Amino acid sequence: MRRDSDLGGLADPGRFSEPLEIAGNDAGTLLEYLRSMQLIRCAEELIGEMVTEGVAKTPCHLGIGQEAVAVGVASGLNATDRVFGNHRSHSQFLALGGDVYSLIAEVLGKADGASNGMGGSMHLYGASVGFQGSVPLVGATIPIAVGAALAAKMGGGQEVAVAFFGDGACEEGVFHESLNLASVYELPILFVVENNLFSSHLDIQLRQPSDSVARFAEAHRIQSRIVDGNDVVRVSAAAGELISRARAGGGPGFLEAVTYRLRGHVGPNEDIDVGVHRKMQDVNAWKQRCPIKRLHAAMAGAGLITPDEFDEQSRGVMSEVRSAVDRARAAPYPDKSTLLDLVYSTRARA
Amino acid sequence: MSAGDPVNYGEAIREGFVYLLETYPEVFCIGQGLWSPWYVGNTMTDLDQLFGRDRIIDTPVSELACTGAAIGASLFGYRPIVVHPRMDFMVLAADQIINQAAKWSHMLGGQASPAVTIRSIINRGGEQGAQHSQALHSWFAHIPGLRVVMPTTVQDARDLLISSVLCDDPVMYIDDRWLYERTAVLPAVTERPLEDEGPKILRHGQDITVVGVGHSTWLSEQAAQHLEEEQISVEVIDVRVLNPFRSDIICESVKRTGKLCVIDGGWRTAGMGGEIIAAVVENIESGVLKASPVRVTLPDAPVPTSKALEDGYYPSVNDVIDAAKKLVRHG
């Protein structure tokens, strides 16, 4: 049985396909958003091709269509902030400035990878840009991010922790425990839910009594915002406000970014057949809400980018990612000794 | 209390905490009941008064998130000690311990390691039953990436806590309420790297090697004393560090005695007792053992409540004496 949507238009695939409202935003910043989203899209499309080809074997959860969430949130963060991801974290890694070559090398299990070839797509590490780790156990990094925020508060610094997770993770008990801790200890953390309306295969309408998860923030007395997750400008504004508040000692924030993944739960297919309530007409409608297309249309309409400039930028991104793929495919695998050498930390090795 | 006075096991744990909190500002404690005398016996008395409630944090009823938060803080320069006053409740934190802390270094390429200590207490007897009495050490010893320590002696209660907290890896420190009244006079603290620690001979003997973990080692020491009166000379080895497990000292001992009896307060199937026997059998030449090794464990049943059943459930000093005697005389 389908219930009424609490998200209303935000969850309606037929809405919000018009160009973004960009008035008042700096042109250089918008161009950065566009390039960052294009880079993520291109990297994930090529990773998808390598999955199809059988070159990338580790499970790859693509966030194609959800790029604006990571890029918008990253715009309010510094390299000393502490960001944690999940199974679908290529976008966050790249949005923070993680190197595309090290991402692709990691996906291919190569020694040059972000996690030295030990993690694959689902376990990424990029501490130099603030990306402190992603893992695929649903909800698992939420309390770890709370601990990162606790450490920041104890240390008296200005760092903010960020946990990225999905609507499915909001059904895990640890999510509620973590929000409670963050709230009672007034920790500097931003909880970011990429609500793409589906768990691996099941519509949120079949899993929760409401399709909006921000109600949990209210239950724990945490400030929250609900935004169109395919609108990078609105994501950036809402995240920036919550991050600044947390940084200033105002306690945790909660951002529900409503979005949609254009591919299946794992791998490059559209997964129409395995999804309950995942219809091709919805996927096609959400393609009209593409965050890149909407920003580009707005920028083109405002004269901020010419067709030639856009083509040149697109070609530049494609060439950067292609060259990363070529290098990564030729790169060496980890030495066999890493299997046992990394079980315990180097300094304390048994 | 002045230097040279005997302290008990519980007080020795507290001395470990005091040493760590005084010496290392990056150490803090987090868990349920840390502001209450109710939960952790005499092991943390007044620490919140001495070091402040920002460093001794009593928490909401959230084992999983609190363990995760300690892991998170440990990635940013802190050395947290999570306290689970009863091991059974720590099962609620299993994802963070087994899937996260144990794997973090390996799956992220050795670039970050959670320097977290997870203390849990085995708290048995008194008809507490199936969910308030478990000893799950073997379970954690199975997981690569975790270090698992079980102090038996009063000195280890203090010193293994210090070594655990100063270790850069996630460590499970498991103490046992049935040991809290043991007493000893302790020397001054010497910091020792945990990776240098392993099984230790507590008592030398020639006729049989008896190996224990945690409280079982104490049973073994008491049994050895009785057996001495019957002219049976027992070598008692305390495992101390269950993971990573090193068998060399035990193997050397068995080469001398030719007989092996293992005492473990956990269940029999797939337990630490079986692991110790297997490691010895694998690493000594055939013919060294003069009799089949024996293990004394819990029966493979949940902990009962009724006194009538509980009395026979836990291995006793007499059970150790009987098993060792049988092995020496008839094995």
Describe it.
The complex is a heterodimer of chains A (350) and B (331). With 350 residues, chain A is of the alpha/beta class. Chain A has one domain (23-332): 3-Layer(aba) Sandwich (Rossmann fold), CATH 3.40.50.970. In chain A, 41% of the residues lie in helices and 9% in strands. Chain A has 12 helices and 6 strands. In chain A, strands 2-1-3-4-6-5 form a 6-stranded parallel sheet, sandwiched between helices. In chain A, strand 5, helix 8 (232-247) and strand 6 (253-258) form a beta-alpha-beta unit. Chain B is α/β, with parallel strands linked by helices. Chain B folds into 2 domains: 7-193, 3-Layer(aba) Sandwich (Rossmann fold), CATH 3.40.50.970; 200-330, Rossmann fold, CATH 3.40.50. In chain B, 37% of the residues lie in helices and 19% in strands. In chain B, the strands form 3 sheets. In chain B, strands 3-2-4-5-7-6-12 form a 7-stranded mixed sheet, sandwiched between helices. Chain B has a 5-stranded mixed sheet with strand order 9-11-10-13-14, sandwiched between helices. In chain B, helix 3 (63-74) runs parallel beside helix 5 (94-107), helix 8 crosses helix 12 and helix 9 (248-257) packs across helix 10 (272-283). Chain B is globular, with a radius of gyration of 20 Å. Chains A and B meet through helix 5 and helix 6 of A and helix 3 and helix 5 of B.
